Amino acid sequence: PAAMRAALGRMSPWRGLRWFSIAYIEVFRGTSLLVQLFWLFFVLPLPPFNIELSSYSVAIVGLGLHIGAYGAEVMRGAISSVAKGQYEASTALNFSAYTRFRRIILPQALRSILPSGFNEIIGLVKGTSIVYVLALPELFYTVQVIYNRTQAVIPLLIVATVWYLIITTVLTSAQYYVERHFARGTARVLPPTPLQRLRLWLKEKSHG
User: Can you say how many angstroms the Cα of residue 146 is from the centroid of all Cα atoms in its chain?
Assistant: First the structure.
């Protein structure tokens, strides 16, 4: 993914690649998502760029670049947190840089990446409501269109809230399963799945 490339670029020994990655991360983390969308939508079609994107393309590219900058920092921090001895041991075993990263470093870093990474994804899902400024029919924009016609503001806002909760709950549940997968071999007792938590709660209620 782009976030991983940016994270590795920022840690690269090559100065040009490192500074390019730093510039990308700092610009997209340091400016508003709304400003970034406006730049893509209104400025790119102008000279010297002359790149005209549809509203959907602007939303996808803008949100992707924005979340990628935050994701790059999450990944960089996780990779940096892997013990130095792991690098030294894999080097002593004569692993190539690619094999060392894929088989030794990344699996350990993923345990740190996943919680923050899923938080960023959930934040992105909620943040998609900002693309209504491009008149895209995302969830919040659709709700606005309907309640402007029907004047049923509160019921439709409740519907939007419920849908956001459903989406984020599904993502949070997926997070548990992914974290359990990468916790195997490092934890004696795996964290319970959402279904196991529900069963335990129902059992406690029945005995209580």
Answer: 30
Residues 127, 130: Cα–Cα separation, whole Å: 6
Buried b / exposed e along 65-92 (16+ C-beta atoms within 10 A): bbbbbbbbbbbbebbeebeeeeeeebee
pLDDT tens-digit map of 57-85: 888 888 889 888 888 988 888 888 888 88
b/e string for 133-143 if b means 16 or more Cβ within 10 A?
Answer: ebebeebbbbb
The whole-model pTM stands at 0.65
CA distance linking residue 30 with residue 129, whole number of Å: 20
**DSSP letter assigned to residue 135:** T
| Pairwise CA distance, residues 10 & 24, whole Å | 10
Structure tokens at 115: 């919680």
> How many residues comprise the chain?
208
**Whole-number Å distance between alpha carbons of 78 and 108:** 8
Half-sphere exposure of 45 (CA within 13 A, CB side): 10
